[in-house]
C-alpha cells in the first residue's frame, strides 16, 4: 500500500535568497619543496614554473578555438518586498545576450513559486493537473514541470523541452531547486516562460556570433537591479489604487456593520499580495466580506488558523517507481467551517479562490469573541500576505 509523507515547509517565513554568483570555491594547494641540493631545488622550481605556464596556456585555449573564455551569467527569478507584500513576476534581466558555450545560471530570488521552462515548440503545460483517482486530493503539481528536465551534461541546443522544476521556499518538497543552469551550444534566440505565471513572466536568451559584444556579468547584475527597482517603484501607486477600490462599510438594519476587505491587487507584472486594509476594527455580530478586485490575478485563501500550524502546500505521495506525486493539500483547496460565525476554535477558511467574472467573495460573521484575530493567505503567507481583525466588544 502506498504511503505518503508530509514535510513541514522549513523556510515558509524565510526571506528569499539574495542573488549570488555561481562558482566553486576550492582550498588552494600548497607546493612544498624540500631541497636537498641547490641544483635539485632549481630543477623542481623550473619544473613548477613550466607546469604553470603550460596550464595557463591550456586554460586559455579551453574556451574555444579563438581562445575566448566562456562566461557564466546570473538571471534572478522573481523579485519581492515582503514588508509590503509586493512580488514581481519577472526574470531579471528578461533578455540576455551571450556567446556559444556560455552558461546561464537562474537563481531563486523570491518566495513566490516559479519555473524556468523552455517549451521548444511544445504547448504550455498546466501547473496543476488532476491527480489519480482515490488519492487524498483531486489536484497535483504537473510532474512535467514539478521536477527538473534538462540534458544530462547541461548543454542545451534549444531543440528539446527543458525545465528547472519548481523554485519555491520549501526545498525538501521541491527537491532543493534553488537554481538552474544551462550551457548554450548554438546560436539563436531561445524564449522561455514561467509555467506558474504564464505569458506575464517570460524571458529570452539570445546567443550571438563570437565577434559581437555581450555584456559582462557585472553589467547584467546592474541591469537586473535597475529593472527590479523600477518594478518595485510602482508599489505606492498600486497600494493607492487598491485602497481606492475597497467598498465603504455598510450599516445593517440590526445595528451591525458589514465591512469589506480587498484581496490582493495586480498591476502589470506587479502583484500586491496584501489584504486592504491590513488591519480592521470590528465588533461581535458584524460581517466581513473579502472581495477580489478585477485587477487581481493570483489565487488566494482567507484563513483563520486559531493557533494551529499552517498546512503544507503539498503532500508528497511516494510511488514505487518514478518521482513522488505532489498533491495539492486539500486544506488549501476547500472551505472549512463555511457559513459559521468566527470563533476562537477550529480553522475557518475560504479555500482556494481564483479570479473569475464576477469576482469571488468570502463572508464571515464575527462571533462572540474579542481581541486580535490574525489571518492569512495560505498560498502567499511566506510573501507577507498576513492581516488582522481587531474585535472590539460592543
Q: Brief description of this entry?
A:
By secondary structure, this protein is of the alpha+beta class.
Number of domains: 2
Strand composition percent: 25-35%
- Which structural class matches the secondary elements? alpha+beta
Helical residues, percent: 10-25%
Please give the number of β-strands: 25
The oligomerization state is single chain
Largest sheet: 10 strands, mixed
Spatial separation of the terminal alpha carbons: 55 Å
Helix segment count?
Answer: 5
**Average pLDDT for all residues:** 84
Along the chain, the helix and strand elements come as: EHEEEEEEEHEEEEEHHEEEEEEEEHEEEE
Query: Could you tell me the radius of gyration in angstroms?
Result: 27 Å
CATH superfamily (homologous) name of the largest domain: Cupredoxins -  blue copper proteins
User: If you consult CATH, what is the topology of the largest domain?
Assistant: Immunoglobulin-like
Shape: globular
* CATH architecture classification name of the largest domain: Sandwich
CATH class of the largest domain: Mainly Beta
| Residue windows where pLDDT falls under 50 for at least 5 positions | 1-62
Amino acid at each position: 500500500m502506498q504511503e505518503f509523507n508530509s514535510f513541514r515547509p522549513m523556510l515558509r517565513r524565510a526571506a528569499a535568497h539574495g542573488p549570488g554568483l555561481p562558482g566553486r570555491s576550492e582550498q588552494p594547494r600548497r607546493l612544498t619543496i624540500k631541497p636537498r641540493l641547490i641544483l635539485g631545488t632549481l630543477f623542481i622550481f623550473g619544473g613548477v614554473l613550466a607546469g604553470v605556464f603550460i596550464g595557463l596556456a591550456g586554460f586559455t585555449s579551453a574556451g574555444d578555438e579563438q581562445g575566448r573564455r566562456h562566461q557564466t551569467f546570473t538571471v534572478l527569478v522573481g523579485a519581492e518586498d515582503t514588508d509590503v507584500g509586493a512580488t514581481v513576476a519577472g526574470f531579471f534581466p528578461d533578455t540576455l545576450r551571450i556567446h556559444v558555450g556560455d552558461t546561464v545560471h537562474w537563481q531563486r530570488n523570491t518566495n513566490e513559486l516559479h519555473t524556468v521552462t523552455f517549451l521548444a515548440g511544445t504547448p504550455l503545460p498546466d501547473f496543476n493537473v488532476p491527480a489519480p483517482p482515490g488519492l487524498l486530493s483531486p489536484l497535483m503539481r504537473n510532474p512535467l514541470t514539478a521536477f527538473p528536465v534538462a540534458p544530462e551534461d547541461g548543454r542545451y541546443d534549444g531543440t528539446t523541452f527543458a525545465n528547472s522544476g519548481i523554485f519555491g521556499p520549501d526545498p525538501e518538497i521541491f527537491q532543493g531547486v534553488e537554481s538552474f543552469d544551462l550551457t548554450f551550444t548554438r546560436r539563436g534566440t531561445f524564449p522561455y516562460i514561467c509555467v506558474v505565471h504564464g505569458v506575464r513572466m517570460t524571458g529570452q536568451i539570445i546567443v550571438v556570433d563570437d565577434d559581437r559584444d555581450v555584456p559582462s556579468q557585472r553589467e547584467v547584475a546592474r541591469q537586473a537591479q535597475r529593472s527590479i527597482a523600477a518594478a518595485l517603484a510602482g508599489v505606492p501607486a498600486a497600494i493607492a489604487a487598491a485602497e481606492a477600490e475597497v467598498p465603504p462599510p455598510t450599516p445593517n438594519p440590526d445595528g451591525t456593520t458589514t465591512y469589506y476587505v480587498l484581496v490582493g491587487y495586480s498591476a502589470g507584472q506587479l502583484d500586491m499580495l496584501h489584504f486592504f486594509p491590513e488591519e480592521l476594527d470590528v465588533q461581535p455580530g458584524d460581517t466581513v466580506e473579502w472581495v477580489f478586485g478585477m485587477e487581481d490575478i493570483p489565487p488566494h485563501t482567507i484563513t483563520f488558523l486559531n493557533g494551529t500550524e499552517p498546512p503544507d502546500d503539498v503532500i508528497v505521495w511516494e510511488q514505487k517507481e518514478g518521482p513522488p506525486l505532489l498533491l495539492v493539500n486539500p486544506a488549501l483547496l476547500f472551505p472549512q467551517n463555511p457559513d459559521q460565525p468566527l470563533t476562537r476554535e477550529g480553522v475557518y477558511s475560504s479555500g482556494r479562490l481564483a479570479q473569475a467574472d464576477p469576482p469571488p467573495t468570502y463572508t464571515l460573521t464575527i462571533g462572540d469573541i474579542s481581541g486580535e484575530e490574525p489571518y492569512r493567505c495560505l498560498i502567499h503567507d511566506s510573501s507577507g500576505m498576513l492581516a488582522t481583525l481587531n474585535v472590539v466588544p460592543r
